[in-house]
Amino acid sequence: MRKYLLAIVACFVSTTLLAADPAEPTFRAGAATSNITPALGSAIIGGFLPIPATNVHDELHARCLVLDDGKTKLALVVVDLLGIHYNVSHEARKLIEQETGIPATNVLISAVHTHSAASALGEKHFEFPQEIDEYQTFVARRIADGVKCAANRLRPAQLGYTTARAPEHVFNRRGAVPVPSARSTR
Length: 186
Fold this sequence. Notes:
This protein is α+β, with helices and mostly antiparallel strands. The protein has one domain (about 25-155). It is built from 3 helices and 7 strands. The chain has helices spanning about 1-20, 85-100, 135-150; strands at about 30-35, 45, 50, 60-70, 75-80, 105-110, 155. The strands form 2 sheets. The chain has a 5-stranded mixed β-sheet, with helices on one face. Strands 2-3 form a two-stranded antiparallel sheet. Strand 4 (about 60-70) and strand 5 (about 75-80) form a beta hairpin. Helix 2 packs parallel to helix 3 (about 135-150).
């Protein structure tokens, strides 16, 4: 009797599952960071002369965001570096495609352009093609690792936005332009 009851329940469950509407694609997002701090002694560029790093005040990261709408996956990466050479970006995108299935064309990698960190531009950053050095190889690997972690953390998400006026926080590279006060009638 138990066998028959179990068979009837199994038929009912499978029929119910087959008759159900397919699930709507869900917008999902996943985020991760990956440490890309170079070894002490690496050149900090961005000043008049490069100087060797003697301390780590703040570690450098690749900040990775993977988005998936059920049809297309894409990855956005921002690295805490003065710059990143095309060949490093190309190598990272190749690893990401191989290891996550996210097409290289769906990966955007940018640098914050800080003048207080190292660079992944390489010594001959104007040469194409160029062999990537040890640090550049490390950065490409860590970017791919970060995107992989972000992809593994995909969860349902909602997209939202807001706006605000905060001119006192956006004066980088404006020179001596005065910041308008809160009483300004502009």
